[in-house]
Structure formats: structure tokens, C-alpha cells
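Re-running DUF4331 domain-containing protein to confirm reproducibility after the cluster update. Everything else is unchanged from the original entry.
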Amino acid sequence: MSSHREAPEIAKDPAADGTDTYAFVSPENPNKVILIANFIPLQQPNGGPNFYEFADDVQYEIHVSNKGTSEPDITYQFRFRTQVRNPKTFLYNTGQITNISDEAWNRPQFYTVMKVQGGRKQVIGRNLPVPPVNVGPRSTPNYGDLADQATHRLGNGRKVFAGQRADAFHVDLGSIFDLGALRPFNEAHVISMPEMNGVNSVQSYNVHTIALQVNITELTRDGSKPDDVMDPKSVIGVWATASRRKSRMWNANQGKYTGMGPWQQVSRLGNPLFNEVIVPMAEKDNWNASPVTADKRFAKYVAKPELQGLLPALYPGVFPNLAAYDKPRADLDAILLTGIPEGVVPGFQNYTGPVKADMLRLNVAVPPTAPADENPIGLVAGDAAGFPNGRRLGDDVVAIELRAVAGATIPLVDPSYEPDAAAGALTDGTSNTNAPLLDRFPFLGLPGGGYQTEPGTTQAS
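Result of re-run:
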């Protein structure tokens, strides 16, 4: 969660498991958009000697739809290859790594970036080095400088980074999956406990990030930079996928699986928490394998989300208006599946057309909010540059979506509805207590180091 271990089958394949997708107009340069896709969830920084890395047999992709059809009009593909420099050592590094080309790093990775548009595939970056993971101060001293070497310029104003970063998502997994509890509201839960602050279950974990900076004019349908928020051409849809070959066989001679046949999508992610919370368990794997254009089949779960029925049961007497509301959730349908049409939020829209599809929808004509002035509740709190207008790294999507499901956004489409008092206050009580975000590309914080990591404590009861 957001999409960390969100479906049974992909939970067994972390190298292909997308955790979060982000899309926002760059606060560094409002002429550019930042696209970020994270993979490989819940990485322990001290997880050596076989540290986490991108998979050579996975095709990672970031898709952009700009014509209102929810089809991928532009796709950026990323393919990785791994090298073993010294086959006679078990060590990840045989000395200090002070440069990403340092021979002391025994298992470097490189990648190729391709742009696919209109049936044409163009290589826009080749043999780009990935930085090593943050092993510790002896192995990877001055890690920030080391990681900066892995930001590459691709021409036409593009930048790319692929490598380990600190996870920016925050959520109280331990409480939410313990019968839907929110620690700040513990006393109101049907199984009452003392109220307390939320515990960020993702704190200290890393992910592997693919971050891409591109000109807005590269992403719009006519190559323009729209300045009218109400112009349909100002809206793009964004989602990320991971694919494997259709079949895999174990190659005993090489000691690894060999893929064969066409690529098959095994993971995807647009809006945070969609597969995690909206899609039933029995359909989660099918959702991961299906294209966004087939999401009409999942619309019934958006129209009547299971969590909407659970909240009144888990918090007796707190959500009487929500419990009585029996209309289809047109507000959630707009937020998650079509974008918000003109006339719902004054002066704003990010509607991509009637095709129901789980995508982030970004209106590129909305200027970025200065990072110091961002409201983590985003559009709902009046910050139109935030989720569900795209998604920034600092947006508190757990709180936003909890409040939306609880009915806080119903009046946008049904003015006769009065939300319960608690709907606009829901939160899991967490914030990003991992490494601080950067004010420059690739914006995600530096990954936690293995040596610096202190294991937490657990209790059996």
C-alpha cells in the first residue's frame, strides 16, 4: 500500500511489483513534467550481500495518454542489464565505490530508454549506468554525490534517473490491516483501544525509482504548452506497468529463468490504493494483467466500494449519513476512472473522456505550487496542483482517499448530501518520516544506508 504487495501473485515477484506512480509539473521548471514509477517494495537497506536491483528480464514502462481514449499514446520503456565484474567473489563491492564506474563495484547495472509513439520505437538513452545501493559509509561514502552521477540528460530537455531511493509513501499498515483501525480514532473503533499517533510502516524502507523529466510539449497531443486549465488538451493520463515474457523456463546451465515469447503485463499502477483497497482479492491478479482500457469491469467496485460499508460498521455511530447513502459513487468514478469534468470543481477539470480507466490525470496548465506552500490534502484542500490532479511526492493520498470514500467528496456531485463530521478529518496519523525529499530532480530522498539502519522492535501481543 499504496501498491506494496497489493495482489497475491505479484507479491511473489517484487522485482516487477510497482509500488507508486507520480506525475506532476516540475517545481524547478513549470515547462516540464516529472514522471516517476517506483518498484520493488519494502527494501531493507541492510539486505546484502544480494542487494535489491532492477530485473534484467522485466520490461518497465511509463505510459502517457493524451487523446482522451485512455490508450497509451506515448510509452517510455526501460530495460536493464546486470554485469558481474569478478565472478570469484561473493562481495557486492571489493572496496570503496566513489564513482559509478568504479571497478570496486562488482555488480553494476546499465539500462536503455526507448520512446514508443505512433508505432515507432526510438532509443533515447543507451547503456546508462545505475548507481549502487547505499551499502554504508565505508562502501559508498558521499552517497549523495555518487547518486547524482546517475542523473543523465537525454536531449530535448529530458533527464532520467534509475536507482535506489527512499520511499516517500507513508501509511500505518500495521493498524489499517488490523481490522481497519486508524490509531488517531482508536477509541471510536468497534474494538476500542486508546488513541495514539500513527506508525509509518514504510519508514526506513527503500524502493527502486525510475524518474523521467520531459517537456510538457512532448506529452500533449498537439505539441503545445496549454495555459488554459479548461482546455481538454491540457490533460494527460499517466500509469506505469511491468511486464515479463509470456513464459519462463528454468535454465539449469545458467542457474536462472529464461523468458520466451511476447511480453505480458504483470503489474500496473495509476491511482494510489486502487488495486489495494477497491478491487476484491479474487480479481487483483487479473487487474494487474489487464489494460487500463478494460477498467469498466471494475467500475462497480468504485460505484459501491467495500470500505464505504465497512467504515460505519467499524466505527459505530460515527458515519450515519454514509451508512444511509445508497447512490452510486459518481464522485469516486470521476476521481478515479474518468477525471473530474468541467463544472464540478470551480475553475478546474482533468477529464480524459468517458472511457473508464485507472490513470493519474494531470492538468499541465495548472502551475506547480511552491514546495513550501503545498497542501498535502491537495485539490480537496484547494491546492489544485495536488492529487487527484496528478500526484506529488508530498501528497497524503491515504488521508485524501479515506476522506473521499467516507463521503467528503460526495457533495461535489450531489449537493443534497451532508458528509458526516468525521469524514473530513480522517487520517491514519502518519507523515513521511523517511529521508527528506529533495528540491531538485529526481526529488525523492536518498535511500537509507545498510550500515546506518537500526532494526525496529516487535511485540507478539
